[in-house]
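Write out the 3D structure for:
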Amino acid sequence: MPMSRTSAPADSTPVEPAPADAPLTHGLKQRHLSMIALGGVIGAGLFVGSGTAIAAAGPSIVLAYALSGALVMLVMRMLGEMSAANPASGSFSVHAERAIGPWAGFTAGWSFWFLLCVAVGLEGIGAAKIMTGWFPGTPEWAWVALFMVVFCATNLAAVKNFGEFEFWFAALKVGAIVIFLGIGALAIAGLLPGTDAPGTANLTGHGGFMPSGSEGLIVGLLASVFAYGGLETVTIAAAESEQPVQGVAKAVRTAMWRIGVFYIGSMAVVVTLLPWTDKAVAQKGPYVATLEHLDIPYAGQIMNIVVLVALLSAMNANIYGASRMANSLVARGQGPKALGRISGGVPRIAVLMSSVIGFVCVLLSYWRPNDVFLWLLNMIGAIILVVWIFIAVSQLVLRRRLERETPEKLVVRMWAYPYLTYAALAGMAAVFVLMAREEGTRDQLYATGALTLALAVAGYVLQVTRKESPKV
């Protein structure tokens, strides 16, 4: 029988306190949340990594991003429903614990924390490569260390500092995409000086809309699914906003369709203006290749600056997200107490630990690039899908509970519940099957599966131990 928040059984694990009682401060404003929602998912994966997806899928990359975008919108709608009803800095980890059990919250939370820490290191490496291109002869690790110190310090200060940094970072990224879409639309219409309207020549020529058949579409689909990762951070940040319920509801609603326009629109502009066989798309990135094709001056350097900002923004957001997730897990008795210490409204030990783990990953990329570092990359390969499954299952359970006990909290509602939730779960299962079929993603699937299983077992053991010994 489902338990209520007020009459939980004696063996249940206490969940994170409501934001009003939490020691974290409420320093984020609505404008911060809106930009965090937009900026969190707009990273180097879109600006650079999407070029590889285009090279594999051709013009059908637009369809791949549309399909994966639809899945992400469903996931975010589910997460928005739960987070608006019960804002918590642990976000989906708290929801999974309430809906499924402590082991589920433990698994979802620590796997996401691990993903963010490794991602911090990867983004640092990417940003350092750009800096060494501008300053030849300087060591990459020194740039990474500098970035780590800056953003660790930003996150150690009041949360409003993180919000301000992320607001302006995200504003620059969003502005760059809007300008790109505007220039692209003019070029497609033949209104840009010195250009002719391309028509559908690049969409239907060079092998057609799906030049590599279904296999190319699958590769593009897998790449696009993981490019959308990062939206979840806004529901973590909402717990520290001035109005958590209204803030997360508005941020989720506005971010979903805007991101769809940015991603799908960008891919449509690129494959309409350039033949997908153009090697510059994969080598330089689709944005740089398109702007250079249109003879936009200094396109390469402009986009390098935008990509650098995107990487630094992601570092900043991921250190924040990792520290808050760790703090939430500790608050629920699922991690070392030291990580949960709050000072000045900030979980500073968790911030430091998350930053250190990220820098260790960077060092491993130099010391053990072909075994340990590769193993880490494989383990985080499909974690976001695992998190999405926990979100969907939690929403199925909690929606029924909310409708029965506190229907007034349903300020955001999942569309066509429960049918679209089941459709989203089917979509996630399909992505897992596709990953198992593709040689390039099979190792990631297995490594992520092993990590998830290990965390689930550890979480279940902790759950049983606490049930038998409540004082632990």
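Residues 1-14, 16-22 have pLDDT under 50 and may be disordered.
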